[in-house]
Amino acid sequence: SRYFYSKNTWMCMAMYLLLFYPSSLNMMKQSIAMSLIFFSLIFCHQRSLLKFLLTILIAYLFHQTAILMIWLYPLYQIFVPQNNEPIKIGNKIILVYCCIFGLSALFFFANTLITFLGGIQESYSYMVNHQGESSFSTIPMIFLFFSFIVYFIVVKDSRSNPSFFEKNLLFLFIVIVCLGYIMSELSLFTQGLNRFGLYFQYFIMLFIVQIYKVKTTDIIKLCQYFMLMLAAASFVIYALNGANEIYPYTSTLLGIE
To answer: pLDDT by residue (tens digit) across 107-125?
Structure first.
């Protein structure tokens, strides 16, 4: 966040502490992998494919699910071009259709995916043993709804902004964030499957700052603080439900049960 937004790092950090820090204490390996994926965005911006792939590899060594974000580099090159040109409408339509198709397939074959994961690694057997025990997640859908509203407010209010780079980056962030919050509803099938969406949800930290770079108005500033308050409210709700509790670390390899 400091690389892209040196003056608003505190806002990114606040979103992290409110939305992701409590859960990170119970999924340390994946949290490290997500942080590395987040860091790899710098190499996407620098057009350094080798450094990006190396970072993905290191993230993969911490948590295998990090390989899901290998698409981040080509997506960044397509939708955030260096020549400061607007994204072609055809590319936007293709991306939206790919997202709809991918999410539909993911939800349709969710149970098959759970069985497959449980068969390849013992740590995923938890999801197999808890199929059908989860429910609909309300808070991610609230964030999805308000993220959409804020995005359209910003886009409508930024028509006079000549910087297509900032607009393109904002578009990329909103697409990634929306994917993350929709994937959070994979919890309908089993506990833990929604964790795949956390890689995408991390980008809400950049989205909240990027909206102000696209258009610096009081309305946009108000939107930023509104999302911060929403994050604070979700933190309180999760804490009251016991999500702030730290569970003992277990490891079959080390014999810690």
So the answer is: 898 888 888 777 777 667 7
Q: Looking at beta carbons, which pairs linking 199-203 to residues 24 or more positions away fall under 8 Å?
A: 199/34, 199/37, 199/65, 199/66, 199/68, 199/69, 200/176, 201/19, 201/20, 201/140, 201/177, 202/20, 202/34, 202/37, 202/38, 203/38, 203/173, 203/176, 203/177
Give yes or no for a contact between 180 and 91, defined as CB atoms under 8 angstroms apart: no
Distances (CA, A) of 175 to 26, 169, 235: 27, 10, 24
From CA 142, how far away is CA 226, in angstroms rounded?
A: 12
Q: CA–CA separation, 151 vs 153, rounded Å? A: 5
Convert the pLDDT of each residue in 110-169 to its tens digit. 888 888 777 777 667 777 777 776 677 788 888 889 888 888 888 876 665 557 888 888
Higher pLDDT, 77 or 193: 77
Q: Is the Cβ–Cβ distance between 166 and 211 less than 8 Å?
A: no
Per-residue pLDDT band for 4 (boundaries 50, 70, 90) equals confident
